[in-house]
């Protein structure tokens, strides 16, 4: 009896102790919402550009060759310098050509003298034949001799002009203005008319061409978007072009698109585009590698999202996490057109006004997790990703 009383008392004390503990213990809370940083999808106006590799090429090129033969007496230009059109570059020995010119001039003087005599005779015979003082045949012969004298004068004039031209050709002049290269011939060298080897080469560098290539697929897309009104160009339907130099700097002068090739390279499927740029300081030299930034037009309602908001699924397709109206996560595939700075240009998959997760993605392992969206950059320290030791330093 005593044992049962003790046992019952212990049971009552244990029950009271449990009751006290349960009263003091806090109530268990349900699952808390995961805080994520979001951005709201918006549409805006952006300039559509394409960055294409290219090479510079001279605006004009001329290979200088002699048009008469002879010994070069002088070279009258500085190699690597700038020359003007019609500036004398070489002097070929003019002695034989001067003699030929003098001989042609003398022959012209003789022909002109004969012409005067023949015309006077023909005029006199014309008067005499009217009174039958000379025969008709004599008059015809005098008249023909006069005409022959006129022809001889014209022939002599042509010979003089030809001799003068050859004499002038002994001074080899620049056919265009530009920068001249090294000379392949020195004074004392024998040259011939229209020889295969050029004496030197001149390139006009201001303005200068930039030749770039664009795929036929991109070219067709560009034309289609212009026709549909998605992209807008200027009144002349021309695109502006900027240059990025090899060291990453932007070229200070803006160019314009001149033309596109009329054929597609069958081997590469590329179309050649040519732009022209001012080059007053000759900063651009032929053969330089550049990247042309082609302004294709303007997209008035472009949807761009930060690249940090885009991940990839198992197939490599772009994927974003959209916060629904009930604060759930909708994993959604999108279609991107191109990168615009540090953003992606999206063509389908999301709408204006939707919220995209950009921070805290690593905390969304569960597919049915409830989230608490806050503007990107305003997550609490507890919710924000922990910094690594390297980042803290």
Count of individual beta strands: 21
Mean pLDDT: 84
Q: Helix/strand/pairing class, anyone?
A: alpha+beta
The Cα radius of gyration reads: 45 Å
Order of secondary-structure elements: HEEEEEHHEEEEHEEEEEEEEEEEEH
Q: What is the terminal separation in angstroms?
A: 74 Å
Largest sheet: 6 strands, mixed
Runs with pLDDT <50, length 5+? 1-6, 8-19, 21-30, 386-393
Q: What percentage of residues falls in helices of 4 or more residues?
A: 25-40%
What portion of residues belong to β-strands? 35-45%
**Total of helices:** 5
> What gross morphology would you assign?
elongated
In summary, what is this structure?
With 393 residues, the chain is α+β, with helices and mostly antiparallel strands. Helix content is 28%, strand content 36%.
Task: Walk me through what this model shows.
By secondary structure, the protein is an alpha+beta fold. 28% of the residues lie in helices and 36% in strands. The protein has five helices and 21 strands. The chain has helices spanning 2-24, 95-130, 136-169, 216-227, 389-392; strands spanning 34-40, 43-64, 70-75, 82-83, 88-92, 171-173, 178-180, 190-191, 200-215, 231-232, 240-244, 255-260, 270-277, 289-306, 311-312, 318-323, 329-333, 335-340, 343-348, 355-359, 371-375. Strands 1, 15, 16, 17, 20 and 21 form a six-stranded mixed β-sheet that branches. Helix 2 runs antiparallel to helix 3 (136-169). The two termini are 74 Å apart.
